[in-house]
Amino acid sequence: MSTILETVNLVKRFGGLVAVNNVSIKVRRNRLTLLIGPNGAGKTTLVNVCTGVLKPDGGRVLFSPHGDEGKVLDITGWPSHKIYRTGFVRTFQIPQPFLALTVLENVLVALGGRGENPLVAPVRRLWVRDEEERVRKAFEILKRVGLDRYWDYEAYRLGAGQLKMLEVARALATGAKLIALDEPIGGTDPAYASEIFRYIRGLLKVMDVTFLVIEHRIDIALPYADYVYVMDRGRVIAEGSPDVVAKDPRVIQVYIGE
Questions:
Q1: Rounded to the nearest 5°, which phi and psi values hold at 236?
Q2: Is this prediction's pTM over 0.85?
Q3: Confidence at 258, pLDDT banded by 50, 70, 90
Q4: Phi, then psi, of 97 in degrees rounded to 5
Q5: Which domains does the chain have, with CATH numbers?
Q6: Which of 92, 143, 152, 163 is deepest in the core (most CB within 10 A)?
Q7: How far is Cα 189 from Cα 182, in angstroms, rounded to an integer?
């Protein structure tokens, strides 16, 4: 199985604090890789460095959006917008949709289209079919994430979990190959939290997409993961299948204590 994202001895410092300390991970294509650890472990900082929000102080970030036959991109230190255009998209702990737009409109914005071009917009025949195809794609994506019934709701009317899924829908609309989700079930009730992960697993079956997920609620998230990395104090302290990680004494100590 090929690797879509790899970090090699990645380092990020904030003054005397080493938030990411020589971290090397591999994210396998079309799989859900879970990144867990206590608060302050460096998980979000790691993703921020990978996605260009922060500049690394050492190491490399390698991204392969098109599989073994494609080129491996060294995206170390690239700006966020450039990484986004390669197909590596992230969401944040607090969803940031266009609250006054409907669910459908939020996804259509992410899809883009010829009609957005001011030189093309006045001539309807140049963009009408493109617009119809965009709407079809948007509804298909919304169905995949369980939001098709809410297509005409303004985003501010959605619940916390639904807003998280709208962020996933918008990321999918960009054609992303790798989506980093920062606490996708944060602030949601346990029943809907499990449903979110079921939707994510379903997306892996029908779309060419990969997920790197940061999550604190490991009791809910672990059963849905293919592979797990555990961070503490800026380092990876354990990795493996969910069953192996859950039984690792170092992981138990970090979460429960001696």
A1: -80, 120
A2: yes
A3: very low
A4: -80, 175
A5: 3-96+171-256 (3.40.50.300)
A6: 163
A7: 17
- Nearest alpha carbon to residue 168 among 122, 204, 133: 204
Token duo for residue 12? 């990020």
